[in-house]
Amino acid sequence: MAMATATTTMAATAAAKFIKRGGSTQMLLSKSKPAISSSFSSSSCHCCHIIPRKKPINNIPLPISFPAAAHNYHLHHSFCTTANVNADAITTSQSGGGGGDDTSDDSSSSMSKIKDAGNLLDIRVGRIIKAWRHEEADSLYVEQVDVGEAEPRIICSGLVKYILLDHLQDRNVVVLANLKPRNMRGVKSSGMLMAASDASHENVELLHPPDGSIPGDRIWFGSPDDQTNLPDPASPNQIQKKKIWESVQPHLKTDDSCIAILGGEYFMRTSTGVVASKSLSNANIS
């Protein structure tokens, strides 16, 4: 009896110390089923017998150091590929409320507005009838250009450094026709020949309209179907007052194939095809 009492006392003490330290429940309980000690017997060789536990193991209070039971840990997001990002922002994005698509929508909307502004420009196919050197400005040519009107226009261009005079004669060109006329050293210039230039501005090429174009054909930005919905060109006063050309020009470039394009997505075209540069790719257009 004394031995049974001592055994009982030792078992109880050990169990108390174990629970106080917050030990693993798997050391107290059988792996096969949850159980607890119920009684002790002096007539048996066993110090205790096992009965099934009435409460599930998940209800046992576990020490905070056991994270799977504590349920108060946080998911950690990887910031390896994203700089200056916080966890809340990532969680919001992953849950569908971060507005990631808003940025794309805003960009698309912005470029659509640039396209609309671009189609207020009166850009036409022209043909140079005659060209000569400006008498008062060494860097300027003077061109007489047919743009489909009753009379040819006189346009001054600073192309002397880049294009031989002979290469201008009887040439099809692209003309921006609704700029306010400017006095260029005594010559009234009514329009601008559009050209592509590289980053260093050492190489300049006039844009050329597609084959089949005729003087006066309108040029627009977008798809062939957009031709039916083109607005009337803005007046020269509107172009100047609203700075329409200034808002459009920075987005005008040639692509990898030397095709003129607005904002990387809207081709510059006539009813017969697209406008291009002869050899300058990824170049600015002005």
TrEMBL record:
<feature type="domain" description="TRNA-binding">
    <location>
        <begin position="117"/>
        <end position="220"/>
    </location>
</feature>
<feature type="region of interest" description="Disordered">
    <location>
        <begin position="91"/>
        <end position="112"/>
    </location>
</feature>
<protein>
    <recommendedName>
        <fullName>tRNA-binding domain-containing protein</fullName>
    </recommendedName>
</protein>
<dbReference type="InterPro" id="IPR051270">
    <property type="entry name" value="Tyrosine-tRNA_ligase_regulator"/>
</dbReference>
<keyword id="KW-0820">tRNA-binding</keyword>
<dbReference type="InterPro" id="IPR012340">
    <property type="entry name" value="NA-bd_OB-fold"/>
</dbReference>
<dbReference type="GO" id="GO:0000049">
    <property type="term" value="F:tRNA binding"/>
</dbReference>
<keyword id="KW-0694">RNA-binding</keyword>
<dbReference type="InterPro" id="IPR002547">
    <property type="entry name" value="tRNA-bd_dom"/>
</dbReference>
<dbReference type="Pfam" id="PF01588">
    <property type="entry name" value="tRNA_bind"/>
</dbReference>
